[in-house]
């Protein structure tokens, strides 16, 4: 038999241990709660550092666009003229190994053309001192009105060229085919996601390194991340001159060469750290 006094002491010790353990967890939970509640609040001590990262890559696609526009007396005639030029342009693109999935019509429209018309008043004679002269200047009788004098049909198309070295030749061929307006090329990377991730990683590493140096100089320790933001610059279009838009009579025998250069994919981040 275990003495009653021994059992009482064991019970008291167990109860004390549970009380201490409960207090420990209560303090821990309260501390964590306060820590989370301070994130992003005015009471938290934070430092904010920016970082920059860049990746360069050779473009693997070229985006161009063109418009076909024709005028005629009727809407049907204008559309027919546009369709004729469109067929020549699409046949040329097909023969240049541009896939159908890389050719997209972005807009098609037909609209009337107006002119303001006024009728001329009948001529009349004016007399002075027994003589008369006929008015030589035309006088327009009000009111005038807008009248339809024809129609304009247009169609806009975008093209993705995957073999970028053929860009100059393709743009020249489209100009010979008779397109009205040719723009581009805009050299780009077909799949930039992985390159964007690399640039972001470099920017984060740059910000973290700056934060470690600043914390050491300030004599503080970095805590958890209190804020993060990112902005990126993925390059802009490289515009080519109008020299590639030529008629069949003036087109050179050798296509223009278009340097594609390199695209810069960059990321800028801002990271805020709690300090203690």
Average pLDDT over all residues: 81
Q: Helical amount among residues, as a percent range?
A: 25-40%
Radius of gyration: 39 Å
Major sheet details: 4 strands, antiparallel
Q: What structural category do the secondary elements indicate?
A: alpha+beta
Q: Please, how many helices?
A: 4
What order do the SSEs take from the amino end to the carboxyl end, as H and E? Answer: HEEHEEEEHEHEE
Tally of discrete structural domains: 2
Task: Tell me the β content.
Answer: 35-45%
How far apart the termini lie comes to 57 Å
Major sheet strand order:
3-6-2-7
Molecular structure report:
The protein is of the alpha+beta class and 276 residues long. The chain has two domains: 106 residues, 2-Layer Sandwich (Translation Initiation Factor IF3); 128 residues, 2-Layer Sandwich (Alpha-Beta Plaits). Helix content is 33%, strand content 38%. The strands form three sheets. The chain has a four-stranded antiparallel sheet with strand order 3-6-2-7, with helices on one face. A hairpin with a 2-residue loop joins strand 4 and strand 5. The radius of gyration is 39 Å and the shape is elongated. The chain starts with a helix and ends with a strand.
Overview features:
single chain; 276 residues; alpha+beta; Translation Initiation Factor IF3; Alpha-Beta Plaits; 2 domains; 4 helices; elongated
């Amino acid at each position: 038999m275990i003495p009653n006094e021994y059992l009482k002491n064991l019970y008291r010790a167990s109860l004390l241990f549970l009380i201490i353990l409960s207090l420990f967890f209560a303090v821990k939970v309260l501390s964590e709660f306060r820590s989370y509640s301070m994130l992003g609040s005015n009471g938290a001590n934070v430092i904010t550092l920016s970082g920059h990262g860049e990746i360069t890559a050779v473009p693997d696609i070229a985006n161009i666009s063109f418009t076909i526009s024709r005028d005629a007396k009727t809407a049907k005639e204008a559309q027919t003229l546009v369709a004729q030029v469109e067929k020549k342009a699409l046949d040329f693109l097909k023969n240049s190994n541009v896939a159908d999935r890389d050719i997209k019509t972005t807009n098609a429209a037909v609209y009337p053309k107006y002119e303001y018309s006024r009728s001329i008043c009948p001529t009349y004679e004016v007399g002075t001192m027994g003589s008369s002269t006929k008015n030589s200047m035309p006088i327009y009788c009000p009111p005038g009105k807008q009248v339809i004098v024809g129609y304009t049909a247009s169609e806009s198309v975008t093209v993705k060229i995957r073999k970028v070295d053929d860009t100059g030749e393709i743009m020249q061929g489209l100009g010979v085919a008779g397109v009205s307006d040719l723009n581009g090329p805009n050299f780009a990377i077909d799949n930039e996601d992985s390159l964007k991730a690399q640039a972001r990683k470099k920017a984060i590493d740059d910000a973290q390194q700056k934060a470690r140096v600043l914390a050491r100089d300030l004599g503080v320790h970095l805590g958890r991340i209190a804020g993060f933001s990112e902005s990126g610059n993925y390059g802009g279009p490289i515009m080519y001159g109008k020299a590639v838009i030529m008629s069949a009579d003036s087109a050179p025998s050798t296509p223009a060469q278009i340097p594609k250069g390199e695209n810069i994919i960059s990321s800028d981040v801002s990271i805020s750290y709690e300090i203690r």
